Amino acid sequence: MKIADAKVIVCSPGRNFVTLKLTTADGISGLGDATLNGRELAVASYLNDHVLPLLAGRDARRIEDTWQYLYKGAYWRRGPVTMTAIAAVDMALWDIRAKSLGVPLYELLGGASREAVLVYGHAGGATIDDTVAAVSRFLQQGYQAVRAQSGIPGLDATYGVGKAKGVYEPATKDAPQETAWSSAMYLNFVPELFARLRKEFGPGVHLLHDVHHRLTPIEAARLGQALEPYHLFWLEDPVPAELPDGFRLIRQHTTTPLAVGEVFNSIYDCQQLLREQLIDYLRATVVHAGGISHLRKIAHLAELFHVRTGCHGATDLSPVSLAAALHFDLSIHNFGIQEYMPHAAATDEVFPHAYRFREGMMHPGDAPGLGVEIDEAKAAAFPYQRAYLPVNRLLDGTLHSW
Ligand code: KDG
Ligand code: MG
Question: What is the CATH number of domain 3-104?
Fold first, then answer.
């Protein structure tokens, strides 16, 4: 089962995606997502210029050995570009292996640990009333868990509130959008939002919230404490996660569960948070954290410390990533929740897939492999468009985390 062909497909059906397609000499092909939002071409180049020349003739069944070859063999370790490229190769090899055996990937990962996977949707509105209406729409669609974000009085635009109803695509063409931020205004406002949501929807619905790395540890501790009466499923990315020690301080002050890790790219980013039990949910993903092989190691380490998974799943992660995440989620023991934002219709046309949503739960389907393909002719009709994620400034102009 030698790798005979490898190519990188860059397309933009609604937004940019980088996809790796590997094909074996006996004609089995596998897909890997290599999309790094706002820096897509860096990963395409890493793959084309440095990884693909190493793959020709390798045995597609040697998934772990190929992972180690690309990780240790580069000498330069970790980092989002490297780890996203390795993830794409890893996903494609698992896809090929499962297809060669005629089974859905989760069967190779130990089989199903549950019937289906709990997912959460994104509700956002310009005002509290709009957010209440948005949450209500998700509940009508069967969601059991909803992330709620709202515009903040006095600030023009804020994270998580889409430009149009139901749309979350913060990247903008050619240049980054600039948004303004005040932690003081935000901290005064958010408890009011969740008080209202609990009053409207009662205790049965899982509510989540994303701070998007914007607070200091003591501010995050105050927010976690203020939100305790509303029993959040989690408070996400309360502070920038480069400094794991910051979470000790948050943890000393609040029982609100914490989720972190969508920007993590290896087990080394996670290990202190896990070992010291500073978080409750880990958001590392298949695409940015080294693929299925590496994410399984992270999840197994997390299991020792009572930490469950909550994989990142925004629309900048392609249907290939979503499929891989669902196979992973279905199989591991310490699964918590999966983020789910349906892709644009054009994306779904380019990437036909077997996964399905029903009553707030998802299943990867039982097609062999990942259960997702790419229609290359359709992909070619959507050429790459340069796009950037926003930047965020405090009201006095100081650059802040977006
Ligand atoms: O590319 C960045 C987005 O995926 C990120 O802003 C989304 O924070 C996010 C989330 O929780 O989905
Ligand atoms: Mg997030």
Answer: 3.30.390.10
Tens-digit pLDDT profile for residues 264-305 = 999 999 999 999 999 999 999 999 999 999 999 999 999 999
- 212 catalytic? Reply is yes
Ligand 1 centroid to residue 314 C-alpha, Å? 6
Of the residues 46, 159, 230, 340, only one is catalytic, namely 159
CA proximity to 277, closest of 304, 243, 239? 304
Q: Where are the domains of the chain?
A: 3-104, 108-368
Q: Please name the residue whose Cα sits nearest to atom 4 of ligand 1.
A: 314
Q: What pLDDT, on the 0 to 100 scale, is given for residue 166?
A: 58
What superfamily would CATH give domain 108-368?
Answer: Enolase-like C-terminal domain (3.20.20.120)
Low-confidence ranges of the chain (pLDDT < 70): 164-167
Is the shortest distance between the CB of 314 and ligand 1 below 6 Å?
yes
Residues within 5 Å of ion ligand 2, judged at the Cβ atom? 210, 262
**Which pLDDT score, from 0 to 100, does residue 168 have?**
76
Closest atom of ligand 1 to 341 CA is 12
Estimate the crossing angle of helix 128-140 against helix 183-201, to 10 degrees.
40
Which atom, in ligand 1's list, is nearest to the CA of 210? Answer: 11
